[in-house]
Amino acid sequence: MVTYDPRESADDDAVTASDAPGSEAAGEGADAHACADAGAHGGMSDRAQWLVVVVLFFAGIVAPLYLYLVGPGSFGLGFRDTYLAVPMIPALVLGAVGVWTAVRGR
């Protein structure tokens, strides 16, 4: 299967920012393009990526496994309250990590 990667294409006939009419080679247009290009490839840091993976693992595997193995009533709550409270803990943590990564990624 062949995929297209625009970073690997090297067309000699392509118009660059410095070749376009009315553009400045080292002006604001080139800087804005460089910033947009860096933001597209920058993404999240390794620490933020691993934090999201750990929280997703906790929310998707550990909390349901805890409910399955320990069962309801482990916190002194009833059946319904346990099944509402235990998944809410990783949901709140996942929401906080999502907001943290969104604010940090700006």
Distance between the termini: 35 Å
User: What's the average pLDDT?
Assistant: 73
Q: Give me the number of helical elements.
A: 3
**Percentage of residues in helical conformation:** 55-70%
Integer-rounded radius of gyration: 24 Å
Q: Characterize the biggest β-sheet.
A: none
Number of strands: 0
Instruction: Tell me, briefly, the overall form.
Output: elongated
Structural class: mainly alpha
- Percent of residues in beta strands: under 5%
Low-confidence stretches: 34-39
Please explain how this structure is put together:
With 106 residues, this protein is mainly α. The protein has a domain at 45-104. The protein contains three helices and no strands. Helix 2 (46-70) packs antiparallel against helix 3. The longest helix is centred in the last third of the chain and has 26 residues, at 79-104. It starts with 27 loop residues before the first helix and ends with a helix.
